[in-house]
Amino acid sequence: MAVKYAFVLLLALTVGCSQKEADTVQARVPEQRAGAPRHVGMDAATQERAGITIEVARVQSIPQVVRATGRITTNGNRTWRVGAITEGRIIRVYANPGDRVERGQVLARMHSHGIQESRALYRKALADAVMLRAAESLAARTRDRYKRLYELKAASLEQLEKSEGELRSAQTAVANAEIEVNRTRLHLVEFLGVSLDTSHDHQAGDEHDEDLIPIRSPAGGTVLAASVTSGTVVGTGGEAFIISDLTKLWTIASVNEENLSRLRTGALAHVSVQAYPDRPFPGVVTKIDEELDPATRTISVRIELSNSSGRLKPEMYANVEIDAGGSDPMLFVPQSALQEVSGEVVVFVRTAPEKFEVRPVVAGRTLETRLQIVRGLEPGDEVVSRGSFLLKSQLLKSSLEE
């Protein structure tokens, strides 16, 4: 009887274990089938309504480039540091950082004691010229009288020649006086930029523009800095304003030492910034430094950029691609072909008229509206360039149904 109970117990255990293993196998089946489907179907009529467009993946020859990072800076050849031409005190300031100014525009006006001194010299030059012209007129009349007397035999040749010499000296003195008048006038009007004399209707203590020295912009550009305010005392060595033409900028790129042999002045370059990642700005390499940075083992390369749109700003960080000569074959597809499915970047490849395969890919560089495919496609593969989002939706729907 004991043997019979033992056999029954063993049989029960065996059946229980077999049922547990069966349950375990059934539980593992969904894990083996986990994940989204790798194919999706769509009939021709639906494709036409959805606007599905197919484009063949093609190989293009792309110029070889040297990649580097850098920053946008002002153009040193188009930046001006404006100061005062003499010592004085700032009375009025008209320009502030960020203002757009034109060539010759007044940025500020200053008072200087040199104005009165220069006007005094100008008035003295005028008085001297008047006096010397009178002396010239007298010398001319004296010479004429001796000439008539000499013709009448009433004066000697020596007297005539002496009067002619005195006239020439007087004429030379007048010419020098006129030069001094012009010099002092130009110093006031052209150099200092003030009027020749103080208007008689000014009230005492008034500061009129014609009595103040203007500080002018040497070129059109943008005010980057203004270090003066009303009341600031300035000297000839001081810096009052910084003006820069921001339509022409530089990018200073740091290129690794191993790429030095691939660089050349005049090479084309493309600069990208974070603010406009899909819009590279063209430029030209204008200078390659003569020495490397000993800390980073990189060399500075200067790229000149046109910035007529004003989108680029000094001190922006930039990614740079410099044409290194030669070309590499690369496989490209439209950027619109790429979708993300379950954390993977994929494209939909047509394998039959109504069947599409989900193909994971590895993307590389961007070329305008096209994207390089490093891995995952072959030349000639037919990819969905338009309407791939609808295929993605159909794929996800099929995945949920399963």
- What class do helices, strands and sheet pairing give? alpha+beta
Please, how many helices? Answer: 5
From the N-terminal CA to the C-terminal CA, the straight-line distance is: 53 Å
Question: What is the C-level CATH assignment of the largest domain?
Answer: Mainly Beta
How many individual domains? 3
CATH architecture of the largest domain: Beta Barrel
Uncertain residue ranges: 1-34
Quote the beta fraction: 35-45%
Strand order of the largest sheet: 3-12-15-14-13-16
| SS elements, strand count | 22
What Rg do the Cα atoms give? 44 Å
Account of the 3D structure:
The chain is built from five helices and 22 strands. Strands 3-12-15-14-13-16 form a six-stranded antiparallel β-barrel. The protein has a four-stranded antiparallel β-sheet with strand order 1-19-18-17, covered by helices on one side. It has a four-stranded antiparallel β-sheet with strand order 4-11-9-6, with no helix packed on it. It has helices spanning 2-32, 44-50, 114-151, 157-192, 388-401; strands spanning 39-41, 53-56, 58-74, 79-82, 88-93, 100-101, 106-111, 213-216, 221-226, 233-234, 241-244, 248-256, 268-273, 276-288, 298-306, 317-334, 339-341, 344-352, 355-360, 362-367, 370-375, 382-386. With 402 residues, the chain is α+β, with helices and mostly antiparallel strands. A hairpin with a 2-residue loop joins strand 17 (339-341) and strand 18. The protein has three domains: 39-60 and 330-401, Beta Barrel (conserved putative lor/sdh protein from methanococcus maripaludis s2 fold), CATH 2.40.420.20; 65-76 and 245-328, Beta Barrel (Elongation Factor Tu (Ef-tu), domain 3); 77-243, RNA polymerase II/Efflux pump adaptor protein, barrel-sandwich hybrid domain (OB fold (Dihydrolipoamide Acetyltransferase, E2P)), CATH 2.40.50.100. The protein is elongated and about 130 Å long.
